[in-house]
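Researcher: We're reviewing a set of sequences before deciding which ones to prioritize for further study. For each one, I'd like a predicted 3D structure that I can look through quickly. This is Glutathione-dependent peroxiredoxin. If possible, include the structure in token form so it fits the rest of the review sheet.
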Amino acid sequence: MLKVGDKLPAGALQEFIEVEGNGCSIGPNTFDVANETAGKTIAIFALPGAYTPTCSAQHVPGYVKQAEELKKVGVDEIWCVSVNDAFVMGAWGRDQKTTGKVRMMADGSAAFANATGLTLDLTARGMGVRSQRYSMLVQDGVVKTLNVEAPGKFEVSDANTLLEQAKKLKAS
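Model: Here's the predicted structure for Glutathione-dependent peroxiredoxin, in token form for your review sheet.
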């Protein structure tokens, strides 16, 4: 399982882009995790699924609300990662008004979740293998903080917790 001090696993995530530009075409675009994190501080939070109750009511809205504060303390980008396809993540991002604040990154085949070891098997509930709920701060591809939720909980992966950790990381 991924831990503080580890480099993020190699791999790719997809993002649905609605406006052509910066070398991105309209539609799903694939991004290499190592390239996208190089030289940056990234706040990553992952969750079991788009449009699910806690994710839609608390997790994503918290990061949208705190996006400016996170950027003020040195976070270059905020990523929401979920085992959903890029079309679903794009539609959910529109609903959650994440544009310019949170990148909605799709891990459609759970390859990233599996590589991190932070999976949640919801096969018995008809949802297959998903990502655990967690948050982390990543600097230049290296995990600096990691907050993994206990099953069914939402206590440590919220935006306020990560904001406080980002403030401490900036001060150090």
